[in-house]
Specification:
Length: 858
């Protein structure tokens, strides 16, 4: 056994090996140590290897899924080694001592799950592969629980942002690719071949060319090759559901890097988990598939005004028709997760219940479609989705006839094929039913014959059917001519067999085995039928999800009095009465009111410098505007009185100083890395929010950096930007930067207490309220009064010297300064170029030298 185990262990590579022994999966050696710690189960030993006891732990097969879920969550991958023959087959093959053959039947990894118990219903599970080919990176991503697959290409420096958008739970890259992200799974580079990828995709979808699906580049196809090879490996050759790939253009979506996503808390809050995130505040989907689609929409807001308008039109229509929306949501809520059931069925891990879910889901989709089809003025997007909801009539009818209303998850016991579907199966069931009744009759007969009223006929898996009597009555059955034969003695009871019972039991077993085989073959036929329609079923699932998202968005909008945004060309951003959906919900829960604020950015006023006290609402204001842009371009309503948004190509957020100690960078370093990314990438069409840049270092350094960054954003990037700062000195930028304006969040001191109004007003902040905020926070009065005297001294010093920013007024704008220098260089160059040195007398030459020196101001 050790030899077999070690061979499989070798094959499992860096996965934990689940080694099937009877009713348990056992783990040995290091695997056992790792698993027992993660799962908190007992570590024992079994036998010896090289003179040492072998550490072992095990999990029961029937409960393996929950243990697997915990291991996967902890970042492990697991290889499942099953017995691939029965003990009887092993005996026949190699004699009584032969070991049952085992093989790894699949690998369970975070990105390749299909089991309902292991997946989160409201979250997609993405597996991605990436590789670089002649300077461009191809990315293939799929969710095998629903079969969706997309291919895209990007420049190497945009890989991190693309991966952040995809949020893959597993990433596969070629060995030896240095730019490949840390933590990715490395596979042989030969698997990432464009020709190989193309051939596999053609083979899977049975087409001679991929043109019908979209235009794919060589790097996209290479990544697809790597992805499919990995799926082959983990499924041991059995490929999961893969739908035709979509080609995704890199610039089709609003770009956001990882830091921006994290700071806007789109799908996950800063402290981890969904609670407190944007999606948590807006998700009103009634199906898991809808919630997954919404997450995808929010991760990849659109760049096409037409596509955004289509989504918005549908949301508005459902917003307007409240009763219809209610109806629709009630119908959708009752539907099973068709996409995921299909994923399991195609992966060969489907159960009768999954087939039942397909039947119910598709029938429900048809009803939803029928309900919508008769309506007038249906939005274009919905009109396009309607055909996808219908069209499964034959399959639904067939499944309705074939399956019982609520089929079980296990098929080992049968009982899922409906009666009336197969006459032969019905007959087998009648036979076994008759035999069961005959056994019940036998019990009464035996009681009569023996006079033992406590006699019972029972059944267990070891003995099958048997007769049981209490010990004290056993004598009668033990008599030589009684017709009963003894089988087992228990404490207080004895068990017997009898010929008639044996015959009836055999009839049940035989009929049962035939019935099971018949059900099994029907099951396979039904699976094949579903697999053959997989693309159409997946389209139906996607259509239901899209309708659920729109209805959910409409519901949220109605709940919160949200408005339809206008997404336009141009570089303005006009939001009236904007609110932050998460902060507003949190305040509402405490019975407090959120103060709505306006934001009006335009080409001539594109950088707002926002000051005001701590806790005054600056960060909230910055984020709410970024979120409104994101929601609008994702095709949803926004929390504002009105919103007119010039399409944004990239969104950047640098909010708060979030430590990233895990990556070994200090807060300030993180801040600067992210700021550098913004300065390098923001375009005129981008929207940037910067919160207290420079806060993480000394006052002088911080102010200097904040100053220079604001100038660069204004002069070079020329993007729309909200810039929150504590440095009053920055207000002087308004003198030199014509498209920069000053704003502040209002506060008032009343009877010595600070009142934060959370209201945005024009003009610079009049003063800081640091001490008042500190008092509000409960800093002891003694410390506050000491701080006050220090402050008085500092302010006196400032009045005398002109303060921190004294002299900055004379500082030319950095771009202007550079241009001036370049201009001077040019005159110098021109003069020199015009000189005919050979024709100059020494005296002229000297004169010219004097002139040049004078011009250079030296
Ligand atoms: N518009 C608003 N209406 C009502 N309450 C608000 C509003 N904006 C912010 N708040 C409340 O004020 C708190 C602080 O807001 P925020 O963090 O945005 O302030 P800040 O000015 O950025 O503070 P700091 O400078 O300390 O980072 C929020 O948690 C929220 O409870």
């Amino acid at each position: 056994m050790m030899a077999q185990y070690l061979a499989l262990r070798e094959e499992a590579g860096d996965c934990l090996l689940f080694y099937r022994m009877g009713d348990f999966f056992e783990l040995f050696f290091e695997d056992a140590r790792t698993a027992s710690t993660i799962l908190d189960i007992a570590l024992t030993t079994r036998g010896e290897h090289l003179g040492q006891p072998i550490p072992m732990c095990g999990v029961p097969v029937h409960a393996a899924e929950s243990y697997l879920a915990r291991l996967i969550k902890a970042g492990c991958r697991v290889a499942i080694a099953e017995q691939v023959e029965t003990p009887a087959e092993a005996k026949k093959r190699g004699g009584s001592k032969a070991l049952v053959a085992r093989d790894i039947v699949r690998f369970v990894t975070a990105g390749t799950l299909t089991e309902e118990a292991l997946l989160e219903p409201r979250r997609a599970n993405v597996l991605a592969a990436a590789c670089e080919l002649r300077g461009s990176v191809g990315i293939a991503a799929c969710d095998i629980s629903t079969g969706r697959m997309a291919l895209e290409e990007c420049a190497p420096e945009r890989l991190a942002a693309a991966l952040a958008r995809l949020g893959a739970s597993e990433l596969v890259v070629p060995e030896g690719w240095e730019a490949g992200p840390e933590g990715a799974i490395r596979r042989g580079a030969h698997e990432f071949s464009a020709d190989g990828g193309e051939a596999r995709l053609k083979g899977i979808h049975g087409v001679a060319t991929l043109d019908g699906f979209g235009a794919f580049t060589r790097s996209m196809l290479a990544a697809a090759g790597g992805l499919i090879a990995y799926l082959d490996h983990v499924g041991r050759g059995a490929l999961p559901l893969l739908l035709p790939p979509e080609a995704r253009a890199g610039d089709a979506v609003l770009a956001m890097d990882e830091a921006t996503r994290a700071s806007l808390e789109i799908l996950e809050a800063a402290q981890g988990g969904r609670r407190g995130s944007l999606i948590d505040a807006i998700d009103r989907c009634v199906t898991g598939a809808g919630a997954r689609q919404l997450a995808e929409d929010l991760s990849a807001p659109l760049m096409s005004r037409a596509a955004i308008a289509e989504r918005l039109e549908l949301v508005e229509w459902l917003h307007r028709h409240a009763l219809l929306r209610e109806d629709l949501r009630a119908a959708l809520r009752a539907l099973p997760d068709v996409g995921r059931a299909l994923g399991r069925v195609v992966a060969g891990r489907g159960s009768p219940r999954d087939l039942g879910q397909l039947r119910d889901g598709l029938a429900g989709a048809r009803r939803v479609g029928d309900r919508l089809a008769d309506l007038e003025g249906v939005p274009v997007l919905l009109e396009r989705l309607l055909p996808d909801l219908a069209g499964h009539g034959a399959l639904v009818d067939h499944f309705e006839r074939a399956l019982v209303p609520a089929p079980p998850t296990e098929r080992g016991q049968g009982g899922y094929i409906a009666s009336g579907y197969d006459a032969a199966l019905d007959e087998l069931r009648v036979m076994s039913g008759n035999a069961r009744r005959a056994i019940a009759a036998l019990e009464a007969k035996y009681r009569d014959e023996t006079g033992v009223a406590a006699l019972k006929i029972k059944h267990n898996n070891v003995l099958g059917y048997f007769i049981e009597v209490p010990q004290r009555h056993a004598d009668r059955l033990l008599e030589a001519e009684s017709g009963f034969s003894h089988r087992q003695t228990m404490a207080g009871a004895m068990r017997f067999n009898a010929l008639a019972l044996h015959e009836e039991a055999a009839r049940i077993t035989e009929a049962g085995a035939h019935a099971l085989a018949a059900e099994e073959s029907h099951f396979e036929a039904l699976v094949a039928e579903a697999v053959a329609s997989r693309q159409a079923i997946a389209l139906t699932a996607a259509a239901l999800a899209r309708i659920d998202v729109a209805a959910g968005q409409a519901e949220r909008a109605a709940e919160g009095n949200w408005t339809r945004p206008q997404v336009v060309d141009g570089l303005s951003l006009e939001i009236e009465g904007g609110r932050h959906p998460v902060v507003e919900a949190a305040l509402k829960a405490q019975g407090e009111r959120f103060v709505a604020n306006d934001c009006r950015l335009a080409s001539h006023d594109r950088l707002w410098l926002i000051g005001g006290p701590n806790m005054g609402g600056k960060s909230t204001f910055l984020r709410q505007n970024a979120l409104i842009v994101l929601l609008a371009q994702a095709g949803g309503f926004v929390p504002a009185r009105s919103a007119r948004i010039g399409l944004v190509d990239r969104l950047f957020s640098r909010v708060g100083a979030s430590d990233n100690l895990a990556r070994g960078r200090s807060t300030f370093m993180v801040e600067m890395v992210e700021t550098a990314a913004i300065l390098a990438q923001a375009t005129e069409r981008s929207f940037v929010i910067l919160d207290e840049v420079g806060r993480g270092t000394s006052t002088y350094d911080g102010l200097a950096l904040a100053w220079a960054v604001a100038e660069a954003v204004h002069e070079t990037n020329r993007c729309r930007c909200l810039f929150a700062t504590h440095y009053h000195e920055l207000a002087r930028l308004a003198e030199t930067c014509e498209a920069l304006s000053l704003h502040h969040v209002r506060a008032r001191e009343w009877k010595g207490d600070l009142v934060l109004l959370h209201e945005l007003a024009d003009g610079p902040a009049d003063r800081s309220y640091g001490l008042a905020v500190a008092r509000l926070a409960g800093v002891p009065p003694k410390v506050i009064s000491r701080a006050k005297s220090v402050l008085d001294k500092l302010e006196k010093g400032r009045a005398e010297t002109g303060g921190l920013a004294a002299g900055l007024g004379d500082l030319p704008l950095f771009v202007a300064a550079q241009e001036a220098r370049e201009e001077a260089c040019d005159t110098l160059r021109d003069t020199l170029r015009a000189l005919d040195v050979d024709a100059l007398s020494p005296r002229d030459a000297l004169e010219i030298l004097y002139d040049l020196k004078r011009e250079a101001g030296a």
